[in-house]
Design a protein that fits this description.
about 0% strand; about 70% helix; mainly alpha; globular; single chain; about 475 residues
Length: about 475
């Protein structure tokens, strides 16, 4: 049965739902007015080449492995396995960081206070509802993606318009002199937040993993990426204007900055605060569900080919959804949240989890650009959409995003001087190194299983035996 298909509008709204990350608007605004310079600079040097690369690869290789397939086809199993691990491990960390926002914002809006166990119950409920939703067909959850996209844009428009009104009536909360709009390259703390802007642009490749649910993916994907990218850039800038108009940069809360901005502009007792707070929580849920479809598909495909551990390859008998990957995501996210019991509740929990998530998501994109160059040079299959780069321009447009990703990841996780703020990154760096080592360990173990399976298959006189293929352990 073919099943229900995404309409073209569904595809565009899915792009917006996946890529626009409401919880990352406040960390980006923490850069100050220089954020607007960086938004424009990175739209040209990162978003443009990244979007065009994804559009070409997504329409040429329309499988459910997405980013993993592109890298594996071009660079081999070793890098395919690494990309699958980086891409997947970021997700339970991200879910955990978003889950920590729920009790805080619920308490802020309602006035309720929660014990550590009440907080954990809310956070774990969020995680497992996302896991449950991820086991349904993506086309059956279009209402979640569409609703999330509409709410995200609505929040940004409300915050932006309120900011313009507030600044007109009361003046800006921050210094708006021309010099403040230029970046201070000596401010290491501000450079750390640049990774958030890059993070805010990522996710277009997730939509390419929905190709099987689209009526015409080769037509819809490139148009949706362009239209969605323009919309997302405008929405982020508008949201940044609203937050910057109402909240002084030095007092901006990194996890609840959007709600704080609304409170500053209309007062804590306004119904609009509750409305924006509730909508913000719904967008967190929609964002995690939308990403889960793409990331689970990538991890499952990698496991089926022996490049991720076996449990990730388990699929539902009813609808073939990657339930094994969803289950592993829920387990790891839950374990991460339970760290709050021995460590205690801390206002930095969101930022630590979120920063680790950002680092691994950034790392997962590094091989995509050299993979694109190799596939462009060696694979002669027809390109329905072709990125308008070639020759030296192509080399520049691929090198710039790679350099920006490396710099952003380093600025996020590596102490750049001996100040207390920078040295506070050491636990984050330790966590990143541990998970990098875990990724190499799983790659080597998966490689052994892959080689054993290939040897068994080569010795098997019946290669079409369903028990001999990569799907054997998912049945």
């Amino acid at each position: 049965m073919a099943g229900k298909k995404f309409s073209f509008i569904d595809v565009i709204l899915s792009v917006i739902c996946v890529v626009f990350v409401a919880e990352a608007a406040a960390p980006a605004a923490a850069i100050g007015n220089a954020q607007f310079f960086w938004w424009i600079f990175l739209i040209i040097t990162f978003l443009l080449p990244y979007g065009m690369v994804v559009a070409e690869l997504g329409t040429t290789y329309d499988s459910d492995g997405g980013l993993y397939d592109w890298v594996r086809d071009a660079l081999g199993d070793k890098w395919g396995s690494r990309v699958a691990w980086y891409y997947w491990i970021n997700f339970p960390l991200w879910i955990a960081s978003c889950a920590t926002l729920f009790p805080d914002i619920i308490g802020f809006v309602t006035g309720m206070e929660f014990t550590i166990w009440g907080t954990l119950a809310i956070e774990l409920a969020f995680v497992w509802i996302v896991v449950l939703m991820a086991t349904s067909k993506v086309s059956d959850s279009a209402w979640v993606l569409n609703g999330g996209a509409i709410l995200k844009v609505a929040i940004a428009v409300v915050v932006g318009c309120l900011g313009i009104w507030y600044a007109t009536a009361n003046g800006f909360a921050n210094d708006m002199s021309p010099a403040t709009f230029l970046p201070d390259l000596t401010n290491v703390s501000a450079l750390t937040f640049l990774s958030i802007i890059l993070f805010n642009f990522m996710g277009f490749e997730v939509v390419t993993t929905f190709a099987d649910s689209m009526a015409n993916p080769r037509r819809d994907i490139p148009i949706a990426i362009v239209a969605g990218g323009i919309t997302i850039a405008a929405v982020y800038i508008l949201c940044g204007i609203g937050i910057g108009a109402a909240v002084p940069t030095e007092s901006l809360n990194l996890d609840s900055g959007i709600v704080d901005a609304v409170v500053a502009m209309v007062g804590e007792g306004s119904p609009l605060v509750s409305l924006v707070g509730a909508a913000f929580l719904v967008t967190l849920f929609a964002n995690m569900v939308s990403w889960s479809f793409g990331i689970n598909s990538v991890a499952c495909k990698a496991a089926e080919e022996g490049n991720m551990p076996r449990p990730f390859a388990l699929r539902s008998r009813a609808n073939s959804m990657p339930n094994g990957s969803a289950l592993m995501t829920g387990i790891v996210a839950s374990l991460v949240l339970l760290l709050q019991v021995p460590l205690g509740e801390d206002s930095e929990v969101f930022w630590i989890f979120f920063s680790m998530n950002v680092v691994f998501l950034l790392l997962s994109y590094l091989p995509m650009f050299p993979a694109f160059a190799r596939l462009r040079a060696t694979d002669s299959r027809e390109r329905v959409f072709r990125a308008p780069f070639k020759g030296k321009l192509l080399a520049v447009m691929l090198a710039l995003p790679v350099a920006e990703i490396v710099l952003a990841a380093a600025a996020t996780a590596v102490p750049l001087n001996d100040t207390p703020d920078e040295l506070a990154k050491l636990p984050l760096l330790a966590g990143v190194l541990i998970l990098l080592a875990a990724g190499e360990a799983q790659r080597l173990l998966s490689r052994k299983r892959q080689l054993a399976r290939r040897q068994a298959a080569s010795a098997d006189p019946a290669p079409d035996d369903p028990d001999s293929g990569p799907m054997a352990f998912s049945q």
